[in-house]
Prior knowledge:
Layout: H1 2-5, H2 8-28, H3 62-98, H4 100-115, H5 118-129, H6 133-142, H7 146-159, H8 163-170, H9 175-207
Helix pairs in contact: 2-3, 3-4, 3-6, 3-7, 3-9, 5-6, 7-9
Amino acid sequence: MKRLFKQPIVIFSLSIIALYTIITLLVALGLLAGNWSEEITTSYQKPSWDILFGADIFGQSVLRKVIYSIKTAMLVGFTSSLIALFIGITLGFLAGYFGGYLDQFIVWLYTTFSSIPSIILLISIAMILGKGEATMYISVGLTSWVGLCRLVRGEVLKHKNREYVLAMKTFGASHLRKMRHIFPNIAHLIIINASLQFQTAIKSEVIL
């Protein structure tokens, strides 16, 4: 952590994330942009000192809508990433650790998912579930677990035959305990994938 915080780019990046998080909390509490849907002027009012980003077709402040949208983007990124992480890690672990028919089924499942264009699948799920923020969380989460699942499966396949796992097997350790020891050795890949998934989820939300 000391080495990490000595890098200016890390400090700058964390500051941006902290700023977005603070804005999200303020919007959620109604302390910022709570009146984003209020009509304040005529349609398509030009930007000025009173209305910095101007107004849209409804005469509503574009700046307030931009601020309010930060909350939506952060929630979609966070919630859908959690859904994708849960599915990807669970299925990847099961496939890599147990192998056999279970592995074949999970490989078939994520291969089928990956063969369907993600945007078409995303819109299809959204059409079935209907409009709303919950739909965005679920549809983005259900369409973005494949890469992580494939990655986790490959890493677990590598680790399950290493010495520390074989040693636990010799001592009669349960499958769950062996998985618990494998997990920290692949956690760094999960953290990186989660970071990338977060911004990908926000892009998908914009398209949706």
